[in-house]
């Protein structure tokens, strides 16, 4: 028997499977999806088995050295998905597989076999191995020449257990536990304990109803059962001590109050019924558009409950920044231990622990950020993507996948629904729903039956005319003061991205646009130039406004820090929490600050993007946006869409309880359609206008896009390569496909590497992946040897 193995060397030159012989002692364990150690040149290298075959065309086939897993770490589904992923995103096969696995699996896990039964009950071969010891390392077992197939069977039968430890944090990984022993009936046990040992009888009770070993510590703390009682039972041969793996569950220490399903509103019921219908019928992609506070999460919870009742599993994706304790709590309090949480704030060991609970089938719900979409479930019944419009679902590094695409592929495989939810769906998803590709579901009312908060728009040009140069308008200040008097809370949102990269007239709001691309030109300080990031157009920045002649034309910036100072000056009695990259860089700081705010230890929460989402605090009655048009000016065709989404999200934070909320939006441009429609909560009208714009400029959803970026230290190499790649594509593309560039990337040099980009807009290409592959393939060698880098980003979300 032979195994085809992808080796863990990230280079284009070895991006193909290699054949290895399966030695007899490893048959039965080596199977598709397990990791192995194989000789490669002079070294031993880890690899992943993708298939097993009877024959091999290779003449000198080397044997597999070791097998690292008793169970495949990649299911047949994920093995297949990984192949599509590598092909579609143009990454190495190994890169695709690594994206699906926790980082700890890259060599840091130590496995030990532990015997659960007396030697005599083991097959003779294993009895020899475990002679006089209880534990044998997985590797030693292989070195001894034991047939690993037998080991695996013994594990499957429960004769042996496998304990795994992530090497660098192995200290203190196990705790002492107690479990029942021997095959006695309940009556026999009671008899053996005797009438007088009250505590021991209590302990028996606890152990009989518990499926897993009980921690000695928990018995003492929660049940008042002392060590003496435990030892008493052990002495009578009714129980035994076992080591219990300590799970580094970051939420484990917290107690979650159990929550029960709420009685749904009419709208919620309707949506839930539709989801269940699809669930019964098979796969479909559903888009749930529900205004903020309409109870989408409650619908998710009840849809999941239904899936669990049928014995299936569910994945819930949430954007990284909304994966707050508040969010996690809602799932844990409903489904308790059945929930695993995967997010980037966990250590490698913690992530591995959570992943393993999924892998072993100990949980049936996963709540996590983007990569949780690869959770190794085998009975998926539902995949939910909350805030589906979020850009963070796209990975900006290889493999450049979008979680939505992966979710839909998995949904097809498992024949289960994929539910996309948002108050402001992406234009792309919404267009698909309108076309009937997805099924559209809607929640149009807030659960509390309250109207959406009233939105006041403040024209900052007027403020300037009246001599107010502060970043806070008079209206904003008045509203903030009212909240202070009433003891209510406010959130103030300031978008920092995009500041000082565009030029604007402070008198009339004019900004420079590219004549060819309908996006803002970017200001380049060094040469005092305005440039277009898409097509390369450039011009000298004007000294006076071309529209109104004012000299107040410049780039400017207002950071959160500056606003905080201003607030301190104007409202000295206000307690302020500032949340931005600076104040939240420490692990756990984000959560701690939110908790403080939730406990009403501050009046104003001032922050960037990260406060716009998911806050559900009843005492917030004012949401303010300081520079609504800042995001609008970012040179990206999605600028208007992102602005609309953000304003809607921010507005959604106010008035979630009994008291009505209010929203104040400050802007230099008060006429832009995305602001006006956000002010009226008119998603439909916004989409109409935006779709016209997209159509005119031929942006998604009317076309698909690809961004190719070439980078190297040598500028001439970059230009030459970019031109060659473009030429190759030009030769083979369909006539209807547009190729823009090459032009220097918006950030033309990063870390001494020059960057050039090409943009492709296409509608009908029979095989875009192949076209790109062919254009890039000639550089594979240079790419691995010579530091040349060609990034191919399909359906890009960012254009820097
Ligand atoms: N049927 C219901 N009955 C009573 N309260 C409900 C019901 N459904 C949801 N809620 C409550 O209403 C509030 C808002 O619901 P939820 O957070 O699920 O809305 P959402 O649409 O996910 O909000 P957002 O998109 O703004 O985060 C929550 O506090 C939730 O507990
Ligand atoms: Zn002007
Ligand atoms: Zn342009």
Automatic annotation (TrEMBL):
Domain of life: Bacteria
Subunit structure: Component of the replication restart primosome.
SUPFAM superfamilies: P-loop containing nucleoside triphosphate hydrolases (SSF52540)
Enzyme Commission designation: 5.6.2.4
Gene that encodes it: priA
Cofactor note: Binds 2 zinc ions per subunit.
UniProt entry tagged with the keyword Cell membrane: no
Cofactors demanded by this protein: Zn(2+)
GO cellular component: primosome complex
Location of the Helicase C-terminal domain: 540-708
Residues annotated to bind Zn(2+) 2: 514, 517, 532, 535
Biological function: Initiates the restart of stalled replication forks, which reloads the replicative helicase on sites other than the origin of replication. Recognizes and binds to abandoned replication forks and remodels them to uncover a helicase loading site. Promotes assembly of the primosome at these replication forks.
Entry protein name: Replication restart protein PriA
Family, similarity comment: Belongs to the helicase family. PriA subfamily.
